[in-house]
Predict the structure.
Amino acid sequence: MKKTSLIISLLLVASLWTTTQAQPKQPTSNGYTTEYVELGRKTSLLYKPAVVSEKNAIGVVVMHSNDDYLGFPANSELSKRGYTVLATVPAEGDIMDEKILNIKRAVEYLRNMPGINKVLLLGHSGGATVMTAYQMLAEQGVDVLKTKIFSDYTANLANLPKADGMLLLDANYGNAVMRLISLDPNIHSNGKGNGNSNTLDLASPDNGYNANGVSHYSDEFVKKYIDAQASRLADLTKVAEQRFLLVKQGKGDYTDDEPFIVAGANQIRPFNKLFPQDLRLLSHTKKAWPLVHGDGSVTTEIILSVRAPMRADAKSDKLSASMVTTVRGFLSACAIRVTDKFMIREDGFEGIDWTSNINNPIGNSEGITVPVLMMGMTGSWEYLAAEHIYNHIGSKDKSMAFVEGASHMFFADRDAEKFNNTKYGDTTTALFNYVDKWLSLPGRFLPNK
């Protein structure tokens, strides 16, 4: 009995080893296959269209700034429409140059892949930060780093292979800006999280908060709040710069970097502040643009946000609400400069020096000249970043549109549907049909017919 059990166990182990070692192509019924690809030490997933067409020659690199995007919706949506997609996982941590080198390996892989004629970069949310940083450096060279607050990046960023175009789908305002507008200004610390004075209470009805609906903060309160956020960021940056100087002088806690913990600095959705509660802020574009509806129809109009309000009850004094990084990581990811005119308006931001670091797609876009499509999702507050990017980008071939009611992850936003008592339809299909039309326009990436 024991011998039989041992044989069965060995057979199971052998079967499992064979399965994991072979890594066969995985056929699907959705018009594409997938296979694992190793890029350095980073696993990537290659999506290959099942149907042969001229669009197969367009390769798209997909990567986020921090998250695993191997199963990101755009991968399958683009591949089943005929495009070759290579999704990869970013380097861990907050240091930008390591992530940029991830993208370099992916671009080189597609450039060397038989049949690929054009390579594009797809940046979604924080992924737009690293993708635009890569393309800016590829086009402008590393000398552009000399103008940034933090410029101590590896020399390996020189001579990056350029991409031929970009897709920026619901790009955020940059990881540095998202961190700034997520900082709890009530926490006074040097980055190690000690103390909370609660002088600016975002959840106080006296300041305009409505726990059961839409809040309305006065312009005076908004200005006071974001000025305090900016002041705290400046203080943290100064501390990080001092520690980094000590590290470089050999006087730091370590010889290459140091841990750096910032209390109340988590930038994920529940910790964003002011505009998630006050729907007046970041609520409409400056100009009229194409609006894609769930049924595929397109109108041109001032684009309005349809997002639902969020409560302001995320606890900033928890360790899970902190940013756990290093001195170099903080300077690379967060060191951005604002002026005394810094303000959040109905139609966007004012008073941000977008070019003071490489951690935002708006400043990076000034150094980009390849064709770019920007798409914003109106169920998400990131959508207005598209208009900022459009107004800054150096590309002559630039296009922009918005998808009505789409969430940050492209499907119809359920909270927005409930809040507005409506249905937005199949926003994912509408979005990627629009992207497909832009990509396949003869003469852009495919030959003129």
